[in-house]
Amino acid sequence: MEAVLHNKDHGHAGADAHSESFIRKYIFSTDHKMIAKQFMVTAIIFLFIGGAFALFIRWQLAYPGEPIPVIGQMLPDTWVNDAGAVTAEWYTQLLTMHGSIMIFAVIIPLLVGTFGNFAIPLMIGADDMAFPFLNMVSFWLFPLAGVIMMAGFFMEGGMAAAGWTAYPPLSAIASYGQTLWIVSLFLIGFSSILGGVNYITTVLNMRAPGLKMFDLPMTVWAVFITAIIITIGTPVLASALAMLFMDNFLHTSFFQPENLIVPTRDMTRTAGGGQPLLWQHLFWFYSHPAVYIMILPGMGVVSDVISTFARKPLYGYRAMVFAIVAIAFLGIIVWGHHMFQSGMNPLLGTTFMVSTMVIAVPSAIKTFNWLGTMWRGKMEFTAPMLNAVAFVSMFVVGGLSGIFMASTPVDVFIHDTYFIVGHIHYVLFGGSLFAVFAGLHYWFPKMSGRMYSERLAKWHFWITFISFNGTFFPMHILGVGGMMRRIFDPTVYDFLKPFQPMNEFITINAMVLGFAQFLLVINFGYYWFYGRKAKRNPWRANSLEWQAPSPPPHGNFDRPLHVYRGPYEYSSPESVQDYLPQTTSPEELEEQRRHHERRLEQQNTAEPVN
Amino acid sequence: MLDWLPENVSVFGEGVDHLFRLIYYISVAIFVLVNAIYIAFIIRYRRKRKGEKAYHYHGNNLLEFSWTALPFALFLFLAFYSDGIWEDIKYSEKTPNPDLVVEVMGQTYLWHFRYPGSDGIFGRRERGLISTTNPFGIDPEDPNGKDDVTTINSMNIPVNKTILVRLSSMDVIHSFFLPNMRVKQDAVPGQWVDIWFNSIKTGEYEIACAELCGSGHYLMRGVLNVQSQQEFDTWIDEQYTTARAALANAQETTNE
User: Fold this and answer.
1) How far apart (Å, rounded) are the C-alpha atoms in residues A307 and A40?
2) Which site among B10, B42, B82, B105 would you substitute to test the A interface, given the most A Cβ atoms closer than 10 Å to its Cβ?
3) Res B93: pLDDT
4) Domain ranges of chain A
């Protein structure tokens, strides 16, 4: 009911959008586009924090024990030693916070928060989300959670240091930073559930007249399915976090066996009755689907971008939708592949290996369909297209390296090595983040009403693409060499010493990669305000968001919409143009064709054939 | 790339490496194939002038079916092929009869090893008795436990013998990693997990911890000495003598 009333209120909102106060418009906004921008700006700030943490990690691995150049002496003495080098304590905090921030405060908010919020109402022709107030709450929980996560810095013992997976007993006996980490994730979970419920309701109830489910763009399908995974998986994580909170703060023993000696609590013993593996089951039951939460919206965005810039219908639209549904379903029954060496019954290892191998199939289907979309297309390599094309190629690497881990005997060796680190970064950076770059450039004209600099965007793409591969591909080799993840100083081990030059090579690339991201910020920051004014439909795309003004006012569309077809009718013989918007009625189409024929006739009579 | 693998010296490690190679070649083949097509498309199907129309085509069900079925067959084959080797490594009913059982206890940031005494029997242990001075919780009342040998960060084993490692932890989760043996198994507090291996070459190898266990995680390094049976017998006899001497000493002190 609230949704319906709200829509009525917004019927004429476009006109009075300017009369809103600054606070209502920019801070506590209920407009989905403003919330999307808030998610974007906050997540990019966290991207730089998480990226800086990664560079400190890389510095230590390449030059163990050497002072951090330039800023080493300026850092607080809880982080660095007297010489200005990273300490082992801070190192474990860094790797924990890098993972947690990048996953929960960068990738998920960018893909789900930003694109979900911005694209869903526009792409389905709605004037806002179903529950705009919940949407606002969903956003504000996120920076709050981010600040709480980082607040461990001010506590004794520093930030959380048990890895982003927070395996107890280590996490259960840790300092207050860990407690804050738990609270923070709990809030982020809340934010996700609020967003998820909102996306599901919006997609089901607020589509423009004539818009059928199987006429939805892939971005909407992907975020819709993602929202379902979120609402199923997040409560499980929340319950696990609640138990870990009690273990950590109230010294219960959900995850700890009896008579466990706790070094951090004066060697006292736990009361017991718990099981450390229980946490791993609950955590991965959420966090493996979370990997798909972080890749599915990216796949959706990339499908739309490739189809638009290849000027060709998406190959196998229904197969693409069913592949997403299959990934979402299989994603819920593969969590045990994180636990092959955990002491879980090896029989379960067999089971999870089979389900994990099977989940590679829908990913393969998607890859082949992207190739099919490009086949006989007319591709134009703008910045969004370059990033989308890179996504597909990098996702293939990430997918193939996943097969090594899925095979349980090979996993015995590569589990907890840099092979895993390489794999996850090919999926989350090479996959998700390239999709984010593709989507941000693609919708930049719609978001800001202006065009970004294509030249700067291409520089950003090529430097990022090359240094990304220079950073993360050698990590597979480190993993084959057996280098364990999360170690502070690889030179302690004789068998890892030969890899030191490779570690230095990775670090140099990582620095280039990190600093290249300033190009993105400069490009977006400057051209957001000073760019050339964008047309309504600069990419000549079909989906509904391009029918709204750039940028769309509060309430989005300035004329009533009716949808006649799917979003992928590029180069259709029905139309004289190389695209056919979803809203073009058969009458308009006929009119266009007649107009075109008249023009051709006029040209023919004006220029007689020799 | 597989040349970077540490030297394999264990019996089942050959199976692991074989599978590693197999998947590697399959992956490289798929990667090259997909990317060759990809790059060919990128070069060939560029837009040459504005408004140029592409081929209007929505897809082909036969193709969809075949590129679903083929990967499905390939991945299922890999799963079942892998499973044979997996069962040999980890299924308890497939574990060969051990020639030597060693108990391993992880402690932040140490590895404790325990060998049965000259009687070949481990003394009774109890979790409640575990302490930093008695990492295995050996019952002082049990005579079988009095001659058990314990070492720290150093494990000696005879070559070409089946070793069964019984693994646990006294505080947080660790992971017992022998790169050259292709062994990795988490040590979970509150439970004992068995893992076996069989080294085919003498020498000194490294033991690492592969699961984050705190800020000293990287220091949790041990040494694995694979010795000839003769050398190993000499070593363990020395340990027995020291253990007996220590025991006698202790008894003397109690008698006084």
Assistant:
1) 24
2) B82
3) 87
4) 1-294, 295-534, 544-606
Chain B residues near residue A372 by CB distance under 8 angstroms: 59, 63
What DSSP assignment string belongs to A446-496? HHHSBPPPHHHHHHHHHHHHHHHHHHHHHHHHHHHTTPBTT-S-GGGSGGG
Best of B186, B192, B205 to disrupt the A interface (most A CBs within 10 Å) is B186
Backbone angles phi, psi at A494, to 5 degrees: -65, -40
Task: For residue B67, list chain A residues with Cβ-Cβ distance below 8 A.
Answer: 364-365, 368
Single out the residue of A198, A388, A229, A383 nearest to residue A296, CA to CA.
Answer: A229
Q: What is the CATH architecture assignment of A1-294?
A: Up-down Bundle (1.20)
- A365: exposed, middle or buried (C-beta count within 10 Å: 0-12, 13-18, 19+)? buried
Q: What percent of chain A has a predicted confidence (pLDDT) above 70?
A: 96
Using the 8-state DSSP alphabet, how is residue A557 labeled? -
Minimal Cβ distance to B31: which of A316, A397, A494? A397
Per-residue model confidence (pLDDT) at position B225: 95
CB-CB contact of B163 with B100 (8 Å): yes
Q: Decide: pTM greater than 0.90.
A: yes
Which of A170, A341, A480 minimises the CB distance to B175? A341
Interhelix angle A434-448/A454-480, nearest 10 degrees: 160
Tokens 């989507």 belong to residue = A439
> Beta-strand (E) ranges in B75-138?
100-107, 110-115
Q: Is A125 helix (H, G, I), strand (E, B) or coil?
A: coil
Q: What pLDDT score does B255 carry?
A: 62
- Kindly list the structural domains of chain B, giving each domain's residue range(s) and its CATH number in brackets, ordered by start: 6-45+57-93 (1.10.287), 100-255 (2.60.40.420)
Q: For helices A500-530 and A454-480, what crossing angle results, to 10°? A: 160
Would you say A152 and A184 are in contact if contact means Cβ atoms under 8 Å apart?
no
CA angle at B221 for the pair B220 and B225, rounded to the nearest 5°: 145
Interface contact B212-A163, CB threshold 8 A: yes
User: Which residue among B82, B89, B214 sits closest to A353, beta carbon to beta carbon?
Assistant: B82
Whether A261 contacts B190, CB under 8 Å: no
Q: Give the pLDDT score at B134.
A: 87
Distance from CA of B218 to the nearest CA of A (A): 5
Mention every residue, 6+ apart, whose C-beta is less than 8 A from residue A513.
Answer: A463, A464, A467, A468, A470, A471
Write the DSSP symbol of residue A417. Answer: B
CA A461 to chain centre: 17
Nearest CA in chain B to A378: B47
Whole-number Å distance between alpha carbons of A308 and A290: 28
d(CA A601, CA B209): 80
Q: How far is CA A367 from the centre of its chain?
A: 18
- CA–CA separation, B175 and B154 (whole Å): 16
Nearest CA-CA distance, residue A232 and chain B, Å: 27
Class of domain A295-534: mainly alpha
Q: Which residue of B has its CA nearest to A323?
A: B68
Are domains A1-294 and A295-534 of this chain identical in fold? yes
Q: Using an 8 Å Cβ cutoff, are A471 and A509 in contact?
A: yes
Give the distance from residue A167's alpha carbon to the nearest chain B alpha carbon, in angstroms.
Answer: 8
Considering CB atoms only, which of B19, B51, B60 is closest to A577?
A: B51
Which of B59, B71, B214 is nearest residue A315 as measured by Cβ atoms? Answer: B59
Distance from CA of A241 to the nearest CA of B (A): 18
State which residues of chain A have pLDDT below 70: 1-19, 267, 606-610
The number of C-beta contacts closer than 8 angstroms across A and B is 299
